[in-house]
Design brief:
Helices cover 41% and strands 18% of the residues. By secondary structure, the chain is an alpha/beta fold. Strand 6 and strand 7 form a beta hairpin. Helix 2 runs parallel beside helix 3, helix 5 (162-172) crosses helix 6 (179-186) and helix 8 packs parallel to helix 9 (273-283). The structure holds 5'-O-[(R)-(carboxyoxy)(hydroxy)phosphoryl]adenosine and zinc ion. Residues 112, 116, 136, 267-268, 301 line the site of zinc ion.
């Protein structure tokens, strides 16, 4: 049995978890700062770092207590080294290094995006080769995994990430932050009233959402000029259908070409209810590939997912030094230039 203490602080969640063998959550404490950042309409990095400093010790203490273990029982300390906001990451990195040094435990630095992918380990054993659609506030990636702990990005976004587009469109529609869940909810009442342009990219597996976001903004301005009020539910519906249809089509094309044994969704946008239905419908037609969708509690940022990835990295012999610092632009393992 291997117990990993995992720490995550890459954006606006201060989190610590204890995970057994990379697939069983003994505790998963997440202290969200959403209420504070909502006041500003988005994450304010300096504010985020300060709140991480205030909360980090508490979440670590709580995670150990809830799991009913002490640091003596822990085999390794995994932490998010990047990507993310530098000031936010820094707090988790320092906490992980301090605790590992004080209790003489190995350190395992983890890429946040691999954490999102390995969150699926709480649902099912992973079967390789595997395709992961990683969709969050900062990333939109198709990641091909020939084997365990092997990552190859076959598609990414050249501009906005999908979650970022949701957040920005929600802001112009006056729905507030974070926009993803708000658009998800209100779009259920919307109709296909507006027509928006389908995103175009040179590489078939790349994504683009900034043109679509601008088209929504221009549509609102056009309606205003005509003296008409935009129908928020219809606009949310049309944005969501256009964005998701394009993303799902590309993912299904990649599944046809690469023929993975599993397709997994990963990241905050995997919580989207419409996306889940669209994916299930499309993947039901492809018998050879299983679709895995993580439960809602491990789609958005948490430390359990860092514990899942941390376990696999630990078993692969990955260790970090006490000289390591946060890496805000961190690439996935194997993608280093
Ligand atoms: O993975 P995550 O918690 O943080 C990052 O690593 O970025 O993802 C946060 C993103 C935000 O952009 C948020 O609006 C989006 O995930 N999100 C959603 C939903 N829930 C969260 N987007 C669409 N539908 C949702 N239900
Ligand atoms: Zn994330």
């Amino acid at each position: 049995m291997t117990l990993i203490l995992a720490i995550e602080s890459s954006c606006d969640e201060t989190a610590c978890a204890v995970v057994r063998d990379g697939k069983e959550i003994l505790s998963n404490i997440v202290s969200s700062q959403i209420n504070v950042h909502t006041l500003y309409g988005g994450v304010v990095p300096e504010v985020a770092s300060r709140i991480h400093v205030e909360n980090i010790s508490t979440v670590i203490t709580e995670a150990l207590a809830k799991a009913e273990v002490t640091m003596d029982d822990i085999d390794a300390v995994a932490y998010t080294r990047g990507p993310g906001l530098i000031g936010s990451l820094h707090v988790g990195v320092q906490a992980a290094k301090t605790i590992a040094w004080a209790f003489n435990k190995p350190l395992v630095p983890i890429n946040h995006m691999t954490g999102h992918i390995y969150a699926n380990r709480f649902v099912s054993e992973l079967k390789f080769p595997l395709m992961a659609l990683v969709i969050s506030g900062g990333h939109t990636q198709l990641v091909w995994m020939k084997d365990e702990w092997s990552f190859e990005e076959i598609g990414t976004t050249g501009d906005d990430a999908i979650g970022e587009a949701y957040d920005k469109v929600a802001r112009v529609l006056g729905l507030g932050y974070p926009g993803g869940p708000k658009i998800d909810k209100i779009a259920k009442e919307g109709k296909p009233h507006y027509s928006l342009p389908t995103p175009k990219t040179a590489n078939p597996y790349d994504f683009s959402f900034s043109g679509l976001k601008t088209a929504v903004l221009q549509m609102i301005q056009r309606e205003e000029k005509k003296g008409e009020e935009i129908n928020i539910a219809d606009a949310a519906y049309c944005f969501q259908e256009t964005a998701l249809t394009s993303m799902v089509k590309k993912t299904i094309a990649a599944v046809h070409e690469y023929q993975p044994r599993m397709l997994v969704l990963a990241g905050g946008v995997a919580a989207n209810s419409r996306l889940r239905v669209m994916m299930e419908e499309e993947m039901a037609k492809i018998e050879e590939t299983d679709l895995i969708i993580p439960p809602l509690y491990c789609c958005t940022d948490n430390a359990a997912m860092i514990g899942a990835a941390g376990y696999v990295a630990y078993m692969h012999g990955e260790r970090g030094g006490f000289d390591a610092s946060a890496d805000p632009g961190m690439l996935m393992p194997g993608e280093e230039e």
